[in-house]
């Protein structure tokens, strides 16, 4: 492995197309002796009337995010051959993503998948190729969300 391996960052959300981005990142990491980093952003707890309830909701959301990332980390290791770097943050997905990229110089490529519906590529992709493009310090790879595993394996 090289001294500074490429780190392919994937935003883990609940969309079907996220799997395409994850597989693409894993395949590219394997081909380049790189690593995959996973980011899961949880929404802030909205129930703020009672602080204890808000804290409990926040902790449950974080634990759920960590369980999801641990499951996906196994997939990453099998597909890429390396251990995933895991990040859980709370707040707005776009803002937390941009903050992580600014804070972590090891992240070298952001991999997102375009939505498959009539609504377009999705709000995150749209904002990062639109008015927030200038805030990215790394390349953005957009994977068509309709690609099958076999398609990805052929091109990655």
Provide a descriptive summary of the structure in words.
The chain has a single domain, classed as Rossmann fold, CATH 3.40.50.620. The chain has 5 helices and 5 strands; from the N terminus they run βαβαβαβαβα. Helix 1 packs across helix 2. With 156 residues, the chain is an alpha/beta fold. The radius of gyration is 16 Å and the shape is globular. The model has no long low-confidence stretch (mean pLDDT 92). It has a 5-stranded parallel beta sheet, with helices on both faces.
DSSP helix count?
Answer: 5
Q: Give the beta-strand count.
A: 5
Order of helices and strands: EHEHEHEHEH
Low-confidence stretches: none
Query: Architecture, according to CATH?
Result: 3-Layer(aba) Sandwich
CATH topology call: Rossmann fold
Gap between N and C termini, in Å? 19 Å
Overall number of domains = 1
Cα radius of gyration in angstroms: 16 Å
As a percent range, the share of helical residues equals 40-55%
CATH superfamily: HUPs
What amount of the residues lies in strands? 15-25%
Q: Let me know the average pLDDT.
A: 92
Strand order in the largest sheet: 3-2-1-4-5
Shape: globular
């Amino acid at each position: 492995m090289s001294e500074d391996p490429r780190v392919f960052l994937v935003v883990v959300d609940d969309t079907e197309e996220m799997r395409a981005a994850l597989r693409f990142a894993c395949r590219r990491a394997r081909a380049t002796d790189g690593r995959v980093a996973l980011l899961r952003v949880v929404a802030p707890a909205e129930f703020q009337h009672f602080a204890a309830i808000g804290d409990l909701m926040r902790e449950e959301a974080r634990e759920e995010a960590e369980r999801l990332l641990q499951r996906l980390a196994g997939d990453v290791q099998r597909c890429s051959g390396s251990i995933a770097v895991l990040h859980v943050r709370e707040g707005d997905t776009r803002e937390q993503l941009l903050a992580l990229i600014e804070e972590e110089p090891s992240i070298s490529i952001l991999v997102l998948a375009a939505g498959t519906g009539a609504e377009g590529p999705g709000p995150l992709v749209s904002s990062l190729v639109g008015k927030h493009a200038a805030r990215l310090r790394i390349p953005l790879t957009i994977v068509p969300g309709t690609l099958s595993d076999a398609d990805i394996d052929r091109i990655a």
